Amino acid sequence: SCGPGYQQRMVYCTEVHSDQDHYSYDPPSPSISDCPDPPPINIEECNVRECPPSASWRVGAWSKCSVTCGVGIMERNVQCLTDDSHLSELCLSNQKPQFQTPCFNNVCDVSASCSDIQKTKEVQTDGEYMLKIEGKVIQIYCAGMHSDYPREYVTLSSGEADNYSEVYGYRLQNPYECPYNGNRRKDCACKNDYLAAGYTVFHRIRFDINTMQIIITDLHFAQTVHGRAVPFATAGDCYSAAKCPQGQFSINLSGTGLKISEASGWIAQGNYATVNVHRSQDGTKIYGRCGGYCGKCVPQTSTGLRMQVQ
């Protein structure tokens, strides 16, 4: 369909002059010796169009590691080029070689707190830094680096959809029922008038670097979507006195290198309070459903909500 080639045709003798001046147009039957000589050519060269140039991915040399110590990135140039080294878009994207790869250069002298980073490295910029926690290097967000008291936060890489606290606002008219098998329905016989109701989502959570205890009341990197602010890992309602909790909280520490300590637990507060807490096997995810008339659940005050490295 492109480039140099050959085209063929069938050549045969169909018209023969006889002694009686009779012409025959039947398919070839006469002897070849009766046909005109030489016969027409039956094959010739052709070139319908020039073929587009072929192309392939070409890679350059890897760059130096982006950091002098710890984990960094190496990069290289990746281009789709034709045989004559012109840029092209003919290469398949799913076959493109990687242009970045992780690299490791020596073990860094890792600080143990944001305050250490501020003092030893003279850093005054808030941001993500690597800290050594319980013998493991963990990425921590340092805030207040321009102040005398920098603070440590964990950035919740799983997102706000998996890190929230809620106090449910609806209240049953008959608080001794648990309709719809405990499922929520806004068409229930109830009123949405609980003044303590609220829904808060969290982007980062603060913790004490010495005790590893989460400071659940710190809302610096939280957003209250509606109602009143609700502390981290807290849920409640004033829905029912019949063990029918509707308030919810969710914790997801996946991707942080940390998990909730097995020693951490939740206690009920208020009237007719019920606490249902489910923990993932690896301790990175906690889901709670709590409530009463009126009641809530909070982390145990004796131990607090503690984290540990995975």
UniProtKB/TrEMBL annotation:
Lineage, opening ranks: Eukaryota, Metazoa, Chordata, Craniata, Vertebrata
Source organism of the structure: Scyliorhinus torazame
Protein name: GON domain-containing protein
PANTHER family per the UniProt record, alphabetical: ADAMTS A DISINTEGRIN AND METALLOPROTEASE WITH THROMBOSPONDIN MOTIFS PROTEASE, PAPILIN
UniProt xrefs under Gene3D superfamilies: Thrombospondin type-1 (TSP1) repeat
Subcellular location as annotated: Secreted
Chief location: secreted
Matching InterPro entries: ADAMTS_ADAMTS-like, Pept_M12B_GON-ADAMTSs, TSP1_rpt, TSP1_rpt_sf
Parts forming coiled coils: none
GO molecular function, one term: zinc ion binding
Gene Ontology BP annotations: extracellular matrix organization; proteolysis
Pfam families, sorted: GON, TSP1_ADAMTS
Domain of life assignment: Eukaryota
Recorded GO CC terms: extracellular matrix; extracellular region
This protein's UniProt keywords: Metal-binding, Repeat, Secreted, Signal
Ranges where the GON domain occurs: 110-310
